[in-house]
Amino acid sequence: MTANKDPKTPPPQEQDQQPGIESNMHPEPEYIRKDYKGSQKLDGKVAIITGGDSGIGRSISVHYAQEGANVAIIYLNEDKDAHETKQLVESAGQKCLLIAGDIADPAFCNQAVKQVMDQFNQIDIVINNAAEQHPQSDFMNISQNQLERTFKTNVFGMFYMTQAALPHMKKGSTIINTSSITAYQGNKDLIDYSSTKGAITTFTRSLSESLIGKGIRVNAVAPGPIWTPLIPSTFNAKKVDTFGSNTPMKRMGQPKELGPAYVYLASEDSSYVSGEVIHINGGTIVNG
C-alpha cells in the first residue's frame, strides 16, 4: 500500500457512492506508523469494530492486532477493503472475523454478535465507529430519507450493536464510540451528521454513568478532519482539495494518528477514565 508523508491536503478527487473505497483513494490513508511496536496491551481480548474495514476502523483493527487482540470487523459491503484489513490483522498473528451487513438493522446486530461469540466465545471491546454523512448547503434540502438514514446508521446502529454485545461483556470490558469535532463546533453543511455526533457524545457520557458500577468503561474519540474513504465519497473534488487546511496544524490527519488513542482507551492504561472524549483534531480547542 502506498502512503503519503503527511501531505497538507490531498489532490482533488471524489467517489460516487458511500461507503467509499480505500483502495481508490490517492494517496491511500496511512493506518499505522512503521515504527509502531505493540506491547500486548490487549493480549487475549476480542474486539468488535464497526466500520473496521477502512479508514479509522482499519487503523483500530491493525493497532489492536499489534497489541494482541482478535478482531471482528463489521462492515457494509466493502469486501475488498475488508479482506485487505483481515490480511493485515492476520499478518500480525491475530484472528479476524469479517461480517458484512447493515448495523441499522437490530436483527443483523444480534446475528453478528452471535457469530462473534460462536467464533471467539468472548467480547471484551466494542468500537462503535461506522458512520455516514451527506452534506447539504441548504438545511431545507435535508430530506426525511437522508435524516432517517443518517440517524439509523450513526445512532441507532450504535444502540443496537451495544445492546447486542453488552450481555456478553464483563467487568474490565470497554466500549469506545467515534464522535466528531462537529459535535462541538457544529458544521453548517452537515447539520444532521453533526447532530448524530452530538448524540454519540451524550450517549457516551450517559452509558458510562449506567455501566460504571459494573466495571465497564465507556469513552469516545472525537476526530477532526481525517483522511478516510468517507471524505472523497462525501465531498466534491474542490472541497477535498482543501481538506484539513483550516486546522491550526494546516493539514488533515491520518488514521494512524487515531489508532493509539483507541488502544489507550481499551487498555488498562486508561483504567481511571470513563465518560470522556479524546479530541484528535490538529490543534483545534473545543473544551468539551
TrEMBL record:
Residues 1-30 are annotated as: Disordered. Transmembrane segments: none annotated. It holds the Pfam family adh_short_C2. It comes from the Bacteria. Keywords: Oxidoreductase. InterPro entries: NAD(P)-bd_dom_sf, Sc_DH/Rdtase_CS, SDR_fam. The keyword Oxidoreductase applies. The keyword Nucleotide-binding does not apply. Belongs to the short-chain dehydrogenases/reductases (SDR) family. NCBIfam families: PRK06701.1 (NF005214), PRK07231.1 (NF005559). PANTHER family: NADPH-DEPENDENT ALDEHYDE REDUCTASE 1, CHLOROPLASTIC (PTHR48107:SF16), NADPH-DEPENDENT ALDEHYDE REDUCTASE-LIKE PROTEIN, CHLOROPLASTIC-RELATED (PTHR48107). This is SDR family oxidoreductase.
